[in-house]
Specification:
Two copies of one chain form a homodimer.
Chain A lengths: L10 H11 L4 H12 L7 H5 L4 H14 L2 E6 L2 E6 L1 H16 L9
Antiparallel strand pairs in A: 1-2
Chain A binds a DNA duplex through helix 4.
Amino acid sequence: MGLTKTEIFTAQQNRIADLAKAFAHPARVAILQLLIARKACVCGDLVDELELAQATVSQHLKELKRIGIIHGEINPPRVCYCINPPVWEEARQAFGAILGSFDGVSCCN
Amino acid sequence: MGLTKTEIFTAQQNRIADLAKAFAHPARVAILQLLIARKACVCGDLVDELELAQATVSQHLKELKRIGIIHGEINPPRVCYCINPPVWEEARQAFGAILGSFDGVSCCN
DNA sequence: TTTTCATATCGTAATATTGCGATTATATTT
DNA sequence: AAATATAATCGCAATATTACGATATGAAAA
């Protein structure tokens, strides 16, 4: 169906899945890394750095904005993007919690 | 196109994206949480716990196996699934590194 | 050997994602 | 006002994902 049955999962599980989507495509990983590396906010420089069309980069930025992990400040004719600290922290906590909840002991070797 | 241009990204970026996919669907988050919660490996109990058809659960397990974060031990007529410690640790490191690489300072307010 | 059980795989349908060219929107510059 | 520059959106095509019923598989139990 291609349609996730979100209603049968907890809000936490759905949120983790959404946060994970921010990192679930190499282009978005690259964008996030670039936004962090250049302390200053990067804008359409992303299009130059990535070998992707402007429309494609814009679409990935839109998805990252939807998740909330970045936000853009319009500064015509440019838009300055940057990491959204509270949501980044939310992701840090969420992944830290779930990844830290496994004690390393696996039964079927 | 629906076809990711993996060749224009680094191996590290592609791997992070793949590891993130393990958590990018609530059903897979739920499966991983169940595998951790019950120290003993869960098998088709997953089908009972999740409100998803057996074929659907099996497909998610296949994806998690492809990523390498779980592995199954055939114990006819059941299959015992569990977290694969080295890959789980790889994910912990990878997400810890990227999520820890942002110092909290965001330029646009 | 036939049944039975648990799981994997197949086939199919519906929706989502990825990517890009073309166009639109918005505000500055000339 | 017209031209320019940047980024968002539209429309489209191709592939991927999600989900499930039905069937196949493989080994134990009857």
